[in-house]
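Section 5: illustrative case.
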């Protein structure tokens, strides 16, 4: 039986993003083109898994060919490489939708990185990101796709040279697989080795040996096939039978990345519910780590049948974890939407999340260096859980690591911090910002340094949020060094640091009153500081006000209509302040100096003077006085 081939072939232009991607791939030289084979085999395996899922409801889709398979056919004489599967297949409409557009999350970020790396020798970006079907154009100057969707009586072809257009046409059923998809690559002259058995077998065993679908290699179109991958589910095998290379191979296949796993977690849960878990923490940051959608990357299987990769198995703060969960208890005939609301899945989510955090804790105790490498990549994401996951906050606080005023080059745990608390210290002090070096030298921490009090330095945006939700550790609350009074009087100065000379109280009090009146409307108060030891001034938030760094962040995002007025703290023992207190206000000098002190404090905080013109005029008057 044949299809109705009366309809003329249709030629279409690729979407702009596809054209740009193809152009970069065709006109750039990359050190590892082998990855195209992994990508196409992964697509074929996904198609077989989708058919297995669809066949749960409609067994007739399998017909008389129930076993999934992937075939690789070589034709060295013609310079062709073919990959064929008996999976779900595509209609002509599916081809236009799937092969003419890019729907993959984060593609623009990938292309930006690809463009930035173009021309660099040894670029591994294609291997890191994976580019799906389009990777075929790294090795082929023409690609033909023949497909027939399971359960339909029509077949179609898709053809392109990757230069801007593609053609879709109806074809005879005899020219397409009985079911599934056939991808035929006409290899470039410098890629003819991909039609040789040794090359293909080596790549498949290295990169795709553990896809859950058997792979058969045909050295010639009419030759007998040789099985080169058995399709056994790696996650169901005992750990003792799996090598590190096997894990790395499977990780690359399931994660779509090309680095090594930094940590592998593989176990089987038994009890009320039974399920197998194989997850990986990547060695490098995935490119979509901070994607606004923040979706997870855990595949869900039920008794080895792939169900979905959109079930939220892990909380969002563990979205960097790659891998899969295979349940023995979820029903196969439940819709994907209903699965998300299943109490069985809820129990799996809780169990897997708890186990992953426990494994991270074990790693931090047993191999601190390996754990720190993970924290450096993903700590800013894990900290999202401190305000999203109240139930596990204590565990996450135990996993957290920080830079501090006593350990800028290393990392400190809260356990370390609490063990070194000073006598009469009742809080865990921290400073938030966007630059670690600026935080370490900010005037607000001078008084803490002078007393040997450790201050956590928090440069990530997420730190502005989790610190404000009433977090405490072992009964010690977190307190910002830029908010409210410092209350350091009960903690003595460190050994060798002399107490500052006490100024003339009456003169300083008079200057504070003058500054308070002069700067009214710009600050909420002017007061003597316990924080400052070497700087003259600093700005802090009022006791009941919002932390200044969080306030800046919300204001920049347009989420804070009106910011609270800060408090200007003055180091009354500072030589400059004492001189100002003794000066008169001839020609408005003291008024200019009060405003300049406020602007000095703003600049020390990384801000600009609120009125640049007034600032320069005051500075100009001061400089003219100094030389007159």
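Designed sequence:
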């Amino acid at each position: 039986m044949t299809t109705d081939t009366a309809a003329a072939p249709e030629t279409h232009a690729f979407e702009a993003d596809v054209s740009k991607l193809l152009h970069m791939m065709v006109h750039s030289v990359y050190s590892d083109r082998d990855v195209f084979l992994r990508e196409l085999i992964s697509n074929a395996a996904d198609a077989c898994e989708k058919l297995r899922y669809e066949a749960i409801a409609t067994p007739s889709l399998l017909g008389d060919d129930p076993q999934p398979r992937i075939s690789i056919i070589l034709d060295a004489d013609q310079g062709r490489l073919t990959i064929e599967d008996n999976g779900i297949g595509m209609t002509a409409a599916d081809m236009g939708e799937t092969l003419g557009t890019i729907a993959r999350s984060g593609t623009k970020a990938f292309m930006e990185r690809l463009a930035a790396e173009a021309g660099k020798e040894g670029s591994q970006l294609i291997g890191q990101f994976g580019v799906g079907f389009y990777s075929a154009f790294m090795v082929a100057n023409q690609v033909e796709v023949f497909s027939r969707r399971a359960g339909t009586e029509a077949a179609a072809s898709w053809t392109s040279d990757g230069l801007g257009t593609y053609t879709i046409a109806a074809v005879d059923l005899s020219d397409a697989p009985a079911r599934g998809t056939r991808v035929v690559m006409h290899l470039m002259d410098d890629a003819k080795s991909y039609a040789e058995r040794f090359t293909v077998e080596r790549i498949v065993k290295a990169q795709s040996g553990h896809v859950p679908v058997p792979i058969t290699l045909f050295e010639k179109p009419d030759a007998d096939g040789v099985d080169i991958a058995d399709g056994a589910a790696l996650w169901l095998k005992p750990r003792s039978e799996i090598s590190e290379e096997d894990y790395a191979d499977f990780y690359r296949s399931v994660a779509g990345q090309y680095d090594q796993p930094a940590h592998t977690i593989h176990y089987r849960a038994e009890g009320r519910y039974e399920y197998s878990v194989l997850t990986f923490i990547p060695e490098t940051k995935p490119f979509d780590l901070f994607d606004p959608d923040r979706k997870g990357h855990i595949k869900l299987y039920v008794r080895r049948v792939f169900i979905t990769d959109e079930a939220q198995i892990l909380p969002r703060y563990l979205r960097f974890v790659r891998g899969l969960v295979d349940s023995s208890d979820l029903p196969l005939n439940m819709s994907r939407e209903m699965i998300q609301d299943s109490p069985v899945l809820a129990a799996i989510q809780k169990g897997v999340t708890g186990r992953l955090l426990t494994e991270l804790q074990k790693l931090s105790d047993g191999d601190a260096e390996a754990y720190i490498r993970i924290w450096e990549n993903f700590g800013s994401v894990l900290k999202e859980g401190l305000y999203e996951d109240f139930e596990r906050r204590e565990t996450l606080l135990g996993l957290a690591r920080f830079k501090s005023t006593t350990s800028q080059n290393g990392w400190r745990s809260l356990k370390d911090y609490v063990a070194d608390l000073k006598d009469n210290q009742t809080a865990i002090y921290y400073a938030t910002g966007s630059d670690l070096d600026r935080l370490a030298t900010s005037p607000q921490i001078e008084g803490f340094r002078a007393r040997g009090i450790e201050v956590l330095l928090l440069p990530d945006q997420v730190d502005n949020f989790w610190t404000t939700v009433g977090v405490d550790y072992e009964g010690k609350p977190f307190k910002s060094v830029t908010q409210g009074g410092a209350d350091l009087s009960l903690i003595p100065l460190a050994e060798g640091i002399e107490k500052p000379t006490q100024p003339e109280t009456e003169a300083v009090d008079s200057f504070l009153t003058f500054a308070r009146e002069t700067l009214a409307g710009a600050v909420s108060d002017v007061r003597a500081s316990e924080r400052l030891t070497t700087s003259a001034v600093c700005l802090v938030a009022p006791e009941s006000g919002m932390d200044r760094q969080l306030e800046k962040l919300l204001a920049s995002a347009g989420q804070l209509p009106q910011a609270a007025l800060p408090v200007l703290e003055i180091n009354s023992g500072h030589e400059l302040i004492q001189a100002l207190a003794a000066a008169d206000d001839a020609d408005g000098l003291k008024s200019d100096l009060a405003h300049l002190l406020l602007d000095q404090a703003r600049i020390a905080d990384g801000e600009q003077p609120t009125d640049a013109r007034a600032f320069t005029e005051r500075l100009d008057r001061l400089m003219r006085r100094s030389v007159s």
